[in-house]
Design a protein that fits this description.
Order of helices and strands: HHHEEHEEEEEEHHEE
Distance between the termini: 146 Å
Mean pLDDT: 79
Strand content: 15-25%
Low-confidence stretches: 37-42
Largest sheet: 5 strands, antiparallel
Number of helices: 6
Helix content: 40-55%
Shape: rod-shaped
Amino acid sequence: MTALTARLRALQSWQVTLAIALAALGFLVAAQLRSEGPRVRYTSQERSPLIETVVSLQRNQDALKSRILELNGQIRDLQGRGEGAAVLVRDLNDQLENARIAAGLVPLEGPGLVLQIADSTLPVPSGATGADYVISAQDLRTVVDALWQAGAEAIAINGERVTAVTAISDIGGTILVNYAYLTPPYQLTALGPKGLYDRLTAVPSFAELVRTRADAFGLQFGFAEPEKVVVPAYAGPVNLTAGRPGPPSQPPASGGP
């Protein structure tokens, strides 16, 4: 211990200072190397995998963008088809509604004419035919035909809609219209343009009916032109039991008419 103490005392002060400085420098160098070691390994060893990951993610993102654009195109295409289908459905519905109106399956209202016809109240002269003094199915058919000629768009007789397949027939003391047995007075409601009665009286068949039936036998005719008339829908069966589509027409042979 004494020898070591004597040796330390023999050292110069500058040597002690230098030794301390070198030790401190070594410590700092070691600390610096220890702190930079992981960073060096990170940048040198992990850089390549990170780049590959970034590139892979970029490729996936580009693929997703392309898929999104593709799906948007398909959506626009489907929307276009849907709009076309909606237009087609609306057009078909309009055609169906027009067909239902033409077939008399839809009630209608508007300006028109109410015409009432009743049997004669005159006594039947001896030797005369009693049928001449009552309304017949032929009389109603004549009036209906004259109303069509005058511009009527819809007609009903005592609430029975007259359609393309309506039959007006004499059955005993009544008149059969569609599937209903009607008795006088007969009220014909016609939907049409204003002034329909004036148009009706200008139809020769109606004028002849009034002359030969009303003037000669006393059949009663009355009319009114309200602001609005209502023609009910046809309420009978609409299914054909005997009809069927015919064969398609064949084109004429070459050189034929």
